[in-house]
Design goal:
This protein has helices at about 1-10, 15-45, 50-80, 80-100, 105-135, 140-145, 150-170, 170-190, 225-230, 235-265, 270, 275-295, 300-315, 325-340, 340-350, 355-385, 390-410. The protein is mostly helical and about 425 residues long. It is globular.
Length: about 425
């Protein structure tokens, strides 16, 4: 009763607390994930491991992350989202801290590639979907703006880690970062995360039932689809296929476009500066397309952003040796990339209701994970076969166009009983 009274007595809707928690979890989770690459150089120097040996831990991380996602939703349905986030933070941060103790290569694979990866799945799936449960009319803005936490974590935590490694050494730095991630993600997630507004005696958007407006993207806004029913629909299958193409392209493009620009004659340091442009513009895209999503709908937003990314991928294959044009390309890609990923979680909630959205988004994440693991391998194979990056960039452009076309077909489903 006290919890309900506290939530209702706040001068603002509790959904914005969930938004803040999601933003912070993203910042620290992705801050740790993006920092791992900084640790690899001193680790390789200490143990004499090759880049391929350490990079395999990242590959293992991604696959375990993808496979774990569907189970995260089921776990949350059984034990609740607060305990699931608590476990996720303990696994991600704890796995990171354990990396500081490694003595053998398999330690790295176990601590980072398995334990931390399972935690990361929980910390992405749960906050993303729970945030969608708290909003309807502002769902696009809420999920889109929260993803700016990814850019904040990348821009702030990674440079701090790089400096601390110089002062403290990589083991002390990784141990400290892991502990901080546990304290932030697990504690704030467990204390402040909630299942949905109704569990707190509130209504979605903080409004009374008569004030709510139906979202144009939602096929059956008041009906919660059972997972088995939803998975059987062509709508969910097409959304998942779109996510498969989108994540595959997003994961792959930065692996290939900067080396391509270096190969055709742009200075490596200047070419790498495109990453900074993409980071800034992705934050801007998250903000801008969050507003677009609420104004024009999730499906329209995904069509616009994946279409923009497809254009940027095709353009990358045609860019001349010109630094200004490379940075202009980074603006287009960063802007559209920033507006895309989290909108998939929002459209799942729009189409299939809030009750089983964690399970369904876990299923979607598995599809994205398969694409994210497969496309870099195919892209690398094309580079090896052709000796250039042109075929790979065109392949990725076609894949992202596939994300657009499948989403174009993914219309809201009829009711589960219709």
């Amino acid at each position: 009763m006290a919890g309900r009274f506290t939530a209702k007595s706040l001068p603002f809707y509790y959904g914005w607390v969930i938004f803040t928690i999601t933003f912070l979890i993203y910042a620290f989770m992705f801050g740790l994930r993006y920092s791992v690459g900084v640790f690899f150089t001193p680790v390789q120097e200490e143990f004499g491991w090759t880049t391929a040996m350490t990079a395999s831990a990242v590959t293992a991380f991604f696959w375990v992350y993808a496979v774990s996602a569907p189970f995260v939703g089921s776990l949350a349905d059984r034990i609740g989202v607060r305990k699931t986030v608590l476990i996720g933070g303990l696994l991600l941060g704890g796995g990171g801290a354990l990396v500081s103790t490694i003595q053998e290569l398999w330690h790295l694979y176990l601590f980072w590639g398995v334990i931390a990866a399972a935690g990361a799945a929980a910390l992405y799936v749960i906050p993303t979907v729970i945030l969608s449960r708290f909003f309807l009319r502002k769902r696009g803005r809420a999920v889109g703006w929260s993803s700016m936490g990814v850019s904040v974590g990348q821009a702030t935590i990674v440079p701090v880690v790089a400096n601390l490694i110089v002062s403290w050494g990589w083991r002390a730095t990784m141990r400290t970062l892991g502990i901080v991630v546990v304290m932030v993600t697990s504690v704030i997630g467990y204390v402040f995360m909630r299942e949905d507004p109704e569990s707190m005696g509130l209504h979605i958007d903080g409004e009374e039932p008569g004030e709510k407006q139906v979202d144009e993207d939602s096929g059956s806004p008041e009906i919660d689809w059972e997972p088995r029913q939803a998975i059987g629909t062509i709508s969910l299958r097409l959304v998942t296929l779109s996510y498969f193409f989108a994540v595959g392209g997003i994961i792959s493009i930065l692996t290939f476009v900067v080396p391509h620009m270096i190969r055709i004659g742009i200075d490596p340091i200047k070419a790498s500066g495109a990453f900074g442009v993409i980071g800034v513009m992705s934050a801007a895209g998250s903000f801008l397309f969050g507003i677009v999503s609420d104004r024009f709908g999730r499906r329209t937003t995904i069509l616009a952003t994946t279409g923009g990314m497809a254009l940027s991928f095709f353009t990358a294959a045609l860019l001349p040796t010109n630094l200004t044009l490379l940075y202009a390309w980074a603006v287009l890609y960063g802007l559209t990339y920033g507006g895309a990923p989290e909108q998939y979680a929002a459209i799942i909630t729009d189409y299939f209701g809030r009750r089983y959205s964690t399970t369904l988004f876990g299923f979607l994440t598995l599809g994205g994970g398969i694409g994210g693991g497969l496309f870099p391998l195919l892209g690398g194979w094309l580079v090896d076969v052709t000796g250039t990056y042109y075929a790979t960039l065109l392949f990725l452009g076609c894949a992202m166009l596939g994300a657009t076309l499948t989403m174009l077909l993914a219309k809201p489903p009829d009711g589960p009983f219709g």
